[in-house]
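Hi V.,

You were right to ask for the full record rather than a summary. Here it is.
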Amino acid sequence: MTKLGITGWKKDDAEWGVAKCFRAWCDERGIVGDLDLDNGVRHVIGFIEAYGSSRFEASWEADAFGEPLRERIIDRAGFRKKDDQRHWHYYVLPEQWKKLTGSYRTADLTREMINRKLLIPNPEGKNSVSIRVPGHGQMRLYHLAPMGEPEAT
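Predicted structure:
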């Protein structure tokens, strides 16, 4: 239409306008990538922030007498373990992972979290890791990377 002189625009006005609108939309949106995947990542992080101590059993922790910690966990989502730097690692049960990620295309969200280094795959590249959980035996779980500051002692 511009070539035919119908719009009255200069040669690059349409491209300039589209680019300006796109930049404004991206600024408002906050990301350029897949918003659904970004929302899924935020959902998983929010779940850990909200339920990290109530839905994840600290199976590796002991009480003051060295006895396994006895916690009452309702609606267990998985297990948590402190590393040497006192960061919590979260291990999500497979069916809970499906529930947690399901509305965000589980396979795509899992891959995105691995790409963002928020989910730690096993050394062979599988999405989940095989780990022995005290009191539960060997299990295949989704290992979330530690987030935030270490817990104070």
